[in-house]
Specification:
- The chain is mostly helical.
C-alpha cells in the first residue's frame, strides 16, 4: 500500500520519513490499547511535527509555515516542488 497519491518513490520516501519520526520520536511505535488515547497522542505528535518543530531542510522553519507561504525557499528532493504536500 502506497502512502502517497502519485506513487512517486520520492514522495513515498517523505511519507515514510514522517512515519518514522512519529513512531520513534513521539512514542507512537508502542502498542496503545486505548483508542482515544492513541488518537490524542497522534494528534499531538502531528501538531508538534507540523507547527512547533523547526527543520534544517526547511531552513529552520516549520512545515506549516512553508506550506502556507509558497515564497519560502527550502530543500526538496521532489522533481516538482509545487506538488509537495505536508501533513
Amino acid at each position: 500500500m502506497s502512502m502517497t497519491e502519485q506513487y512517486d518513490p520520492y514522495e513515498n520516501a517523505v511519507a515514510e520519513r514522517i512515519n518514522r519520526t512519529l513512531k520513534y520520536e513521539y512514542g507512537l511505535k508502542r502498542t496503545i490499547k486505548n483508542t482515544k488515547l492513541a488518537e490524542k497522542m497522534t494528534k499531538q505528535a502531528v501538531n508538534i511535527y507540523n507547527d512547533l518543530r523547526p527543520y534544517f531542510s526547511l531552513n529552520l522553519r516549520k512545515p506549516n509555515d512553508v506550506y502556507l507561504n509558497p515564497n519560502i525557499e527550502y530543500k526538496s528532493y521532489k522533481r516538482n516542488k509545487k506538488d509537495l504536500i505536508f501533513y
